[in-house]
Amino acid sequence: MNRMHLPRLMLAGISGDCGKTLVSLGLAAAWRRRGIPVVPFKKGPDYIDPAWLGIAAGKRARNLDTWMMGSGAVVESFVRHAAGDGINLIEANRGLYDGEDARGTHSSAELAKLLQVPVVVVVPAVKVTRTLAALVLGLRSLDRDVPLAGVILNRVATPRQEALIRSAIEESTDVPVLGAIGRITGELLASRHLGLVTPEEFGQGRGSIERAADIVEQSVDIEKLFRIAEKTEPIEARERTPETTFAPRPGLRIGVFRSSAFTFYYPENLEAIDRHRAMQVPVDPIGDHALPDKLDALYIGGGFPETHAALLSANESFRHSVLRAAHRGLPVWAECGGLIFLCRSVDWQGRRFPMAGVFPVDIVLDPKPAGHGYEEVEVDGPNPFLAPGTRLRGHEFHYSRLEAPGAVDTIFKVKRGVGTGNGRDGLIYKNVVATYLHLHALGSACWVEGLLRAAGEGA
Length: 459
Hints:
By secondary structure, the protein is of the alpha/beta class.
């Protein structure tokens, strides 16, 4: 195996909402200002943070998730996309040691060990001083194999508080303090029910990133962080997974919803379509009057159809064209937001908006998540895409739920997660499947093969 020098750094936190996205965006943009190539990665299943990281770095961000993709695919993907002449920045998720169980399996810490990447932890300093030294000591001691390289203080109130915390940490641990960020006034990055607002919907996105870069440059030792990243050991480049022998019919046209309402697509999913030499046809459900002609299949990703419900509902001709295509037997794969669009209506902020009506069920959004986390299913119903018995691992994150979910046939038995409810997921009508399950092509290669196979068989 080849060993490659890939300078790398992980920005982690002690929990969610501690400021690691702010620091990650600021670092990526600050290094980019200095002409240093930055390749961003995001640990775990996520669409919105990678979109922001991609803008900050000027390069597409990739997800790294050992539960969903497998360890081998994670290492392979990292090595394939990482830069040897710059820095590879991984934003962690949740707390550093938080995984799927009490041992922290599939945590950011385990990813750091897998990729031999030094970790810098963002620590909020709200109404606390020396206690942070105990916290940092615990982070260091819980697993000595985790390469903890430093901490960055966040939300520091005063210079005196910063001095006390720095002194306490330096006297009690061997972990350096590499920066201290004060409390930020005003809203830097807008949030809502699924996390940050997507860059496509947030008009001040570029300005927010530049402000984050200013803050990080003024508050963090970015030269020291770069030196830490450069000193990482070479990483083994594992052999690539053999390409499948599957060969779809040439010239397939796969429609893909692309608008501010539907932005949740893993790059690898779209690249898998391209790799099989199928043509992606952009579809705008807000601006187009109807589906394009001569589509062989349709792929509808996730997003925020609820916040765009009025616009989607108003485009009646387009909704009807999707319904007609479903009746004709067009193969359609829809995830989460796509499921919402294909149902009869969605109830959003006290108003009900008609959707495509492929499935005779209505969608309601609740104040709290209906499903949030990893999802695993087994195919147990006939469908045009996947063989019975196939196991799929992905994730779900939705505040929506189906009213009367038993009114439609389903093809998935949920082994872990919520799905559409009652242990089921995967609504089916003719050649249309809609699910709350988000799949990643590196963990579910059979999905894209199934989509293209169904497309090639035609309606």
